[in-house]
Design brief:
The chain is an alpha/beta fold. Helices cover about 30% and strands about 10% of the residues. It has eight helices and seven strands; from the N terminus they run αβαβαααβαβββαβα. Helix 6 links the parallel strand 3 and strand 4.
Length: about 210
Amino acid sequence: MKNARFLNMSTFEEKNAQHKFTIPTLDEFKQKMASLKIGKNDIIVCYESAEKDTQEQSPFKWACRAAWIMQVYGCTNIKVLDGGLPKWKNELLPLETGKNEPVREGSLPDTSFRLNTKLIKYLDEINRLELEEYAENTAVIDARPSGAFANGSLTKKAVNILPGELFDLKHYATLKPIEARQLAFATKIAGNETDIIFTCQRGIVASLLYVAC
C-alpha cells in the first residue's frame, strides 16, 4: 500500500528477554518507532498479507499484535485493516511496488511514549485468580486451539474462545458483526467483569481477541 512502512515482527520484541515474544522495552520501542518515523498521536493502520488460515487461527494475528503493542506504549489512534491486504487487493484498490523508505511530512513525531501497565498482566497476578475475591471480577479468555485448551490452562477460571468465533474466516477474516461477537463472549463470560485477560500460547493470537472485543 502507498507510503506503507514495513514492520518486521521478529524485531518487535525484547531483544534479551528470557522468553520469545516478550514485548519490547520502552527504549527498544522508541527506537523502532523512530526508524519508522511514527509518532504517538499519528493515525496508524496495521495490516498484513497472509492468505490462508484455519478456524483456530486468523491471518491477521501479527497486525493485531503490532497494534496492541503500540497501544500498550500509548499510541492513541490505532487501526487494524479489516480483511487485510487480501481483501484490499480483491477490491482492486491501489498498490505500489518496490522498496518503500519511511517518509514523514510536516511536524516531528510525538515520541512521549509510556508503558500502560493496565494492558499487561504478570504471572503473580494470574496466580491471584485462585483467590475468590479477586477472581469474581475477572474473566480469563484463552485463544489457543480447543485441543490445547482441553489439556490445561493458566487458571481453572479460563474459558476458550477461538478467533473463528469473532472473525469471518471464509471472507478475508473480516470482523463478524458486533452482535455475533457479543454473543460469542456472552456464552462464555458473565459480562459484568471489570477486568478481562486474554491469553494464548505465545501472546500472539490473544491479540486478535483483544482487537475484536
